[in-house]
């Protein structure tokens, strides 16, 4: 006790090994940790954008959409109109060439490069692909595009057969990426933490509800919430895939003993 008092009087530093072992006490000056270097912050922002190596599906698909949008902007208007008609997923084309129009209709963006769909496509699919990989992202997009298209067009055909709608309803211009995009939004929210998930779903839900009240394009207005729900239905599978992909990125081998166990697998003999 006298030794510590004498050292303090002489101005010598008093050490406290136990306190130094506590992480909060490791910086006696109380200074905050240094901010990350600018290069690291730049890399974090760049991860929001698609790249050919990090997100090949989103990057390649986005290039196709840019090319078709430029074609819509600068090609002969009559040629553009004819190509869009042949790419439409209306009942008439679905009955004749279903696979062709389901693929072709997803190569165009309504509104071209100035549409907000282009920005949302790049942002949402990049985030989704970085979490679950390209093949699963493509599967979610195709699921929303195909199922929502068929679920909205088949009732039109049945209504025409029953005489509730005119035959002209079989021929309409229907193309775009919005169904696949909405399914991707629904899938991505399942990989977020609770607060961002609630905010994202709430914002999208308000927008879709408003569209349903306006009902300016009934098939599209009903197809969007359906596609969103399809993405939400994928949450269990995608969360498992995201956990496995994240564990592999950290160098951890998921254990086969439990679906959510990402501890290193015991390779030693029992």
From TrEMBL:
For this protein, the record's InterPro entries field holds:
Rhomboid_2
The keyword Membrane is annotated on this UniProt entry: yes
Q: Where is this region: Disordered?
A: 1-41
- Keyword line: Membrane, Transmembrane, Transmembrane helix
> Where exactly are the transmembrane stretches of this chain?
48-72, 99-128, 140-163, 175-192
In its keyword annotation, does this UniProt entry include Membrane?
A: yes
Where do Basic and acidic residues bias regions lie? 1-10
Domain of life of the source? Bacteria
Its protein name is Rhomboid-like protein
